[in-house]
Amino acid sequence: MKTKRHTDPALAEARRQQVLTAAADCFRRKGFHAAGMAEISRMAGMSAGHIYNYFESKEAIIESIIEKDMEEMFSIFEGFEGQPQDTLTVLLNGLNIGVQRHMDTDTGACAVELEMLAEAGRNNKVATLLRDADTQARNKMRQLLTSERSVIKDIDEVELESRINVIFSVMAGLLLRKVLYPDLTEETVLIALRPAMKTLLMPFESH
């Protein structure tokens, strides 16, 4: 099924966002499989047939949710790249932004992320979408860590990849900790996370 072309881009984008908001809420409350297009259409206040003018499937909706999340993340990275300080200082100063994003259970965004990860274990298309997004995110981090302002710009590729994967693992794990331990706060996380992240962003001592 092909989506319909729209003559008014602004109206089409508004409708798309309306569907994405409704879908994210449905995924959060009912899970991916229980949230059918009929349920999404009711939440969006439009017919299922109308929704198909913008998205050909639930996977297409998930793809757009991921794209929106990536756009927000790229905006954060661009903000880091535009700052005059060295990379270590910029990333440590901006660490709270990443912590907030990965512990934001109040808006439901984290619940949707968990649902998409669960679906990736069953759905190869969703898994591919998430892996592609992760690749783009790791490439952005690689650009920062190999820039001239980075004190680890000259480390070998294997070590660089290892550090990036550990950094991403720690940040992604914050969501699970928040779900299992709801009393966890950004402030308590940052007490230990700042020095740990500083170690990962500086040259290792030779032994």
TrEMBL record:
- What is this protein identified as? HTH tetR-type domain-containing protein
Give yes or no: UniProt keyword Heme: no
The species is Pseudoalteromonas aliena SW19
| Ranges annotated as DNA-binding | 36-55
Task: Please name the Pfam families in this protein's record.
Answer: TetR_N
Per UniProt, which keywords does this protein have?
Answer: DNA-binding, Transcription, Transcription regulation
Domain of life of the organism in this record? Answer: Bacteria
Q: Cite the HTH tetR-type domain residue spans from the record.
A: 13-73
